[in-house]
Design goal:
Number of helices of chain B: 8
Shape of chain A: globular
Radius of gyration of chain A: 20 Å
Structural class of chain A: alpha+beta
Order of helices and strands of chain A: EHHEHHEEHEEEEHHEEHHHE
Radius of gyration of chain B: 19 Å
Oligomer: heterodimer
Distance between the termini of chain A: 47 Å
Shape of chain B: globular
Helix content of chain A: 25-40%
Helix content of chain B: 25-40%
Structural class of chain B: alpha/beta
Number of helices of chain A: 10
Order of helices and strands of chain B: EHEHHHEEEHEEEHHEEEEEEH
Largest interface: A-B, 24 and 20 residues
Largest sheet of chain A: 7 strands, mixed
Amino acid sequence: MSAQLPALLPRPLNSSFSTKLPTLQLGIDSTSLGEFKICPRRYYYSLVEGWQTRLQSAHLVFGIALHKARETYDYARSSGAGHEDALDKSLGEVLQSTWNSELGRPWLSDIPIKTRVTLVRTVVWYLDTLGQDDPLQTVQLANGRPAVELSFRFDSGYRSRLTGEAFLFCGHLDRIARFHEQYYIVDIKTTGHSLDERFFGQFTPDNQMSLYALAGRVGYSIPVSGLIIDGVQIGVGFSRFSRFPITRDEAQINEWYEGAGHWLAQIEHCAATGSWPQNDKSCGVYGGCQFRKVCSRSPVARQTWLEANFTRRVWDPLVARGET
Amino acid sequence: MPNFRDYPASQITKMLLLGHTGAGKTGALCSLAAAGYNVRLLDLDKGAEIIKDFLINPKSIYTRANPGHWTAEQAAAVLDRFSYVEIDESVSVKGPNLIARGDAWQKITTQLGAWKDGTSDFGNVSNWGPEDILVIDGLSRLSRAALNYIRAMEGKMLAPLEQSHYFKSQNLVEGILELLYSSAVNTNIIMICHIAYGEMPGSQLTRGFPQTIGKAIGPKVGQYFNHALRVKASGQGSLEKRMILTNTSDMIELKSAAPLRVKAEYPIETGLADYFADVRAR
């Protein structure tokens, strides 16, 4: 019996996919690879078909706004603004991005610790703590811009056995900073839990950090020594910050790279056969899969459910955000 | 089925060398250079001065033949085989305080990745061989460098120590230990350590452990080394005697990967060279 999924709707244009085998993604970022590792069916729905829930996750809104705040702050500082002025610009960005002008009201979160108020507080405290006089100095690129929201792409060394096209590794880095004589990729991660060994331990091994470590070695002219996590703990009445260096030695990077080759072959196999199996052991992890209610229905009813409850977007990691 | 008759005697020794301050740990390294090893010392303790006298003083036993230990030819080149790189924390002055910059850790990891000693370039430590010995003197300063690095990157050098600073720096130190112990590093390692007393995990027994940061990893350090020896000074004045011990004593657990081939104790002057020879004997 064939488990092939029907593509009932034409997919939006996405430059990260093959033109020869349209369901084969060639531009692979950590999100795409991570989704496939969790569950091929989840990957199919979210990356190949581009479905996402109509209501954006509060975690996502909060995370995007905090990243944008840091980016705005770094741009302002880079153009000569002092801490207070840069913070003002950053807050202006946050307030604007969390205001729904169509409805004339602020963004309403369904998570008590991640609200507009805790976001503003977190931005102010974060930039006061790890922005002003930051020992990690944001690198200034040759074009005069700060090294924030940097897009990267490079040939993975793997090729599609079906189409002959190259798989590219790509993505976007939050920031490259200099600490003493070395350069680091700095990534902000938020959590509602303590910034303890368990929190930082989740980044080793970790798909995203390993790809970034590889990108740091081959994707930039800046010789990157490692990665640093800016951990942000958000509580109802407080926000805390802690930094943690993430290390990957040569052997660890090679191990990840070899594993990636295995996963790319799996992606290709699924694209070629049109069969994207469910990993039903992953349905409950990471707070529960957003497609669980889809997969829990009969295959014949799923498309209707998707169209009724989800909307489509294009996740194209090859679209550059900043300067490489 | 592999037979232990064919099991090769190890040509690589990864060793903890424990001892209290002044016991003679650093000076004990000279016999290895005299015996033909290339000894490269990462001096974090600023304790290399003693080596100079041992290697250039004509009265020194290391500058002439010592039958049964090293030849005149080996002794003649001892100075060329022993080199050191001193790494220290940079400091800045802020009011009445001297503040560490937290840059020693980066210098250490850079040095291990590309060993440069003046004009000599010995490359990555993982490319060294059985005739080379990396000595890190010592673990206490290495750990302190990790702690300073962690605090400095948060701009908290003057702030009180936080609990998280311990696990973060311990994580870095364990990372280095894992790397040095791994098969990727196919050279000899000697990690010089001071001794700190504490309780054995899961019991109330007091034991001496390698001194590092906090209490969590001291008891675990030994697992990254196949050999743990101790340098001990006893007696006073003309009766003072310095020995290298291989058996557990004074609540300090020692070990050897060749317990039946090595002696219970060695004289400090030739001990490390003899120990290396004994564990390599078939």
